[in-house]
Design brief:
mainly alpha
């Protein structure tokens, strides 16, 4: 009938947060890495070095804006994730 119906299921705050934290998680535990204790320490060092000055809200806003979301939607998502 020509209706534009989205089939994506709505994302929970947990889904949004997991997506936003992927770059940090990839620094700590790269895909395919057996994650030795030494590698975990190095990964945490790298994550802290890169993101230490960020507040959670700033980090979320940048991640959502990197997804090419309009600023208003990025703000709503950051608020939603922060409040849940």
């Amino acid at each position: 009938m020509g209706f534009d119906i989205k089939t994506d299921k709505p994302k929970t705050a947990s889904d949004l947060l997991n997506e936003a934290l992927k770059p940090v998680n990839d620094l700590i535990r790269p895909s395919g890495d057996k994650t030795s204790p030494q590698r975990l320490v190095e990964g945490w060092r790298d994550a802290i070095k890169q993101y230490d000055e960020y507040s959670m809200r700033r980090y979320l806003m940048e991640q959502f804006q990197n997804q090419k979301l309009p600023e208003r939607e990025a703000n709503v998502r950051a608020d939603f994730v922060s409040d849940n």
